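User: Working on a comparison across species. This one is Flippase-like domain-containing protein from Nocardioides koreensis. Can you predict its structure so I can line it up against the others?
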Amino acid sequence: MLRVSKPVLPPSPGGDAGRRVPPILESESSSPLQKTVRFTLSLLLLYLIFGLLIPSFASYQDVWDALTSLGAAAVIVLTLLTLLVESCKAGAFALMIEPLRFRDAFLAQESAAVVSNTVPGPSGTAARYVSYRKLGISNEDFATSYVVNSSISNGLPLVLPSLGLVLLSTQKDVPASVWTLALIGLGVSLVLVALAVLVLRSERFAYGFGVRVGRFLNWVRGVVRRPPGEELGETVVEWRHDVVDIFRARWLGLVAVFATRELATYLILLVSLRALGVGSDVLTAVEIFAVYTVVRLATLVEITPGNVGISEALYIAALDWAADGRDSDAIVAAVFVFRMFTYLGPILLGGGCSYLLARRFRGMAATSAP
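Assistant: Here's the predicted structure for Flippase-like domain-containing protein from Nocardioides koreensis:
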């Protein structure tokens, strides 16, 4: 059996020496030229999406007219669903880390969302790590919760296309475009699910898979003239142990929390479409769910902070194709409403939570002072 050696870290602020943190927090600094190139490419990508692609579906004036027609009842429902989604995100960490209270997890989650949705890279993870350390959470607990949360967050979308396909089979007269999207999502998810199962079943396969991925990433880093990274074989094996151990102990609660989060996110998309006039004669709830599962799978990797621009373009293109070009203005407006609550919502909520969290830290410092 392979023996996994955990990387040793210097003592952290809470005196938790020798504990591990996710390697994602140990990112290398970029040169000014690299930062400038990335910033320029991000601006170019956003221009192509918002300046060329989205206007090809509908004019922004028509989108604005549709947005202003959004009723108060829809806003209330969407707000409640957004709070449910964010509560599930925080609840997952509170469930995995016993000393962490839900209130503190929620404040840390929303404060980190402000950073992750605006700053490139693993900024949100780093912000959450700093908050957890101030709350007295050990590096070990944070690292394990981070690994398990990322695994389930990225693993659940792999099975959603299968559920979407099953639901589509119960419906009559499904457009060919919707079937195509669902089958593409199913094909990709089956490959990734099979890979995940092999990694979880065999420690030897997990190690070999990590080695091959590490070699590929080092080749990519060599192409862009970056130094090679660490060997990933033992990292994948360690990930496997963390996921299996904590999932065995908390599997029922974790499945419930993450499933509720996905359902609530889908309902935000559904309510947005219905509130702006996209009826069931254009897209049924099942067809919308099928599109949601495919785009959710396609946006697992964030290219821009919060996938801003990428998510909007994919949702608009997929929904417009599934609707065969009907109600394009309403679909574009509905996607913007969906993103207002799922992307901008956490940023606005995080502003208030950051203030409350800062007060919480000041109170903790005052009580601990001699």
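For your comparison, note: Residues 1-15 have pLDDT under 50 and may be disordered.

User: Helpful, thanks.
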